[in-house]
Amino acid sequence: MKKTIVKDSSVITIYISNMSEDVWPFIQSISNPYVRQTEIIENTGLAEHDLFSFTGMENIVMVLPKPVKEKYIKYFLGLSGNKNFKILTPKLHTGEISKDIVSDSQLLDELVSISRRYTRVEFISYTNSSQFLHLVSTIRERGVVIHTPESPVEADSWTVDFFGSKSGIRQLSQQSGIQEPDFKMPPGLISIDIENTAKMAAKMYVKENGIVIKTNKGHAGAGLLIFRENDLPKSYNECVGTILNTFRKETYWNKFPIIVEKYIDPAVTIGGGYPNAEFKINKNGRVEFLYYCAMRISASGIFKGVEINNTVLSDQDTAQIMDTGFFLGEQLASRGYRGYYEIDFVASKNGDIFVTESNVRRTGGTHAYHLARYLFGKDFMYDTYILTNNLYPIKKSGPAEEANKLFEILSPILYDPVKKEGIVITGTRLMEQNYLGYVIFGNTRSRAEKIEAAMDNLLAGLGSQ
């Protein structure tokens, strides 16, 4: 007799944390095997931040690359109050988690079994990679009806890599100049081989005293070169040789398009020099604004975190970046993209604001946005000042022991729901690489900065004997 499955009438959301898949061809092209593996391990640690994208939600299954410590799960649930919340992991993590799930028959069967118990099943992911879409197809082949509200259909999936690439967004900017004058990028060119790229880069550097060189789709500072005044020889021939030697150290420079653009000295008074806005395109094609922020960028161009509050930009600058962001969203939506996207800017000292890139996926600030929405409501940008850091360096120490000490050390400044201030730790796995992630909420910018300074002092002794 066939067993009847009694289905739960509610919705189950299954989330795949697949950060590395967003730049998988790039990761595969990193020459040094150690550096390549380090990139995958770092993305594995960053995956714990994703928990906070689902703060306060019910019926969530998250598939993460590696297990999360029980103590940390309890910390998250104590803050979020999530119900029916489950984390699953594949037996083996290669970096392509969607493929790892398909190869793990036990995990795949569990996801199918969970899906069959609910009347509506929604599969979503960090990025709409080809590997994720294949996983969705594999589960559908089992006869399970699943929905993908944050994904384009297969025929429109090209939008992810095209508009999320440095060359794709530059092409759109060039095509849209008349229609949207504010959608402008720093003067630059797209090249396809290192010899010619070195020549055009050297000529631009000698003329402009600064250039930025980007591979088509790098990640977290990898695949990005910033040369300011006096960083390169002023002699054209010597400059060509220096740039060419730099390219030859990494194979990915010869594998993907290269973008060379004028270096813009950032105006820190405008969104910290690097404004940003994040949006989401819903399944019906409607573009939804989420938040704007100032990105916290290191001198070498590495993204560290965000600063969110309505005061980080003037009304005029806010209007410009939001208009540009909505314009990009309309272009994406009309071509079938669905899901999250952001647009990055650099503000010049003459007041111009240039687009630098777009990431067509969830971002390094998405988890902070959802956490803030849960704790403070839709007006969070007016009710709290947010500082985040996804890769805060800590002293070398015994990771497992130090992770246990962390909550005790930071207890004086942990988030207090009564005062509505404090620090939220967004993951402990990164401590294995001597980093920590956090989100700080303060009633004012000054208060947020004081909490961050207090954290610095408290963590100064972490790892000391």
UniProtKB/TrEMBL annotation:
Matches recorded under PROSITE patterns: ATP_GRASP (PS50975)
GO molecular function, one term: metal ion binding
Residues spanning the signal sequence: none
Domain ATP-grasp: start-end pairs: 175-389
Keyword terms of this UniProt record: ATP-binding, Nucleotide-binding
Protein name per UniProt: ATP-grasp domain-containing protein
Organism phylogeny: Bacteria, Candidatus Gottesmaniibacteriota
